[in-house]
């Protein structure tokens, strides 16, 4: 029970278009296309089906669904999971942090190393070229239909996640909450 609270499952949700045949009709009848929200990975994902392609809702828009309440034992895990996913799936939205003044950086951000300071745009490696194609983060939607409550540290964790994601994007990122239970 404590492990489930401290390390809850969560899913990044995507959109898939599936074809549905009406049950009472013959197999030759036309099928109806439906859009469904499914997790990218996990028990309920359809990632093993090669005929169904799961994609993000829109470029830069992500849906996150935690399976437990957001409380003190799991608050940091939420922050790190959201931030790491955004770093992997998006690119920075503004100038690189190397162009920032050292006084504007947080105390724990040492800045770029001396050998990367003079790296020209012509010398981009393969990873940086791939990052150029990624979208910029615009919004994160938290689907809290399963979460029964959020305590004060959970609210602080959401604020910390927003701060970290906005620092990565170098601009505002919208946080939306769906299926809130009162």
Query: Could you give the order of the helices and strands?
Result: HEEEHHEHE
| Category by helix and strand content | alpha/beta
Rg, please?
A: 20 Å
**Arithmetic mean of pLDDT:** 79
The major pleated sheet works out as:
5 strands, mixed
Give a brief outline of the structure.
With 182 residues, the chain is an alpha/beta fold. It is globular and about 70 Å long. Helices cover 25% and strands 19% of the residues.
Descriptive account of the structure:
It is a single chain. The chain is globular and about 70 Å long. The protein contains 4 helices and 5 strands; from the N terminus they run αβββααβαβ. The protein has a 5-stranded mixed sheet, with no helix packed on it. Helix 2 packs parallel to helix 4. Helices cover 25% and strands 19% of the residues. It is α/β, with parallel strands linked by helices and 182 residues long. It has helices at residues 2-6, 75-89, 126-133, 152-169; strands at residues 10-20, 32-39, 61-66, 139-143, 174-178.
Task: Break the fold down into its secondary structure elements and pairings.
Blueprint: H1 2-6, E1 10-20, E2 32-39, E3 61-66, H2 75-89, H3 126-133, E4 139-143, H4 152-169, E5 174-178
Parallel strand pairs: 3-4, 4-5
Antiparallel strand pairs: 1-2, 1-3
Helix pairs in contact: 2-4
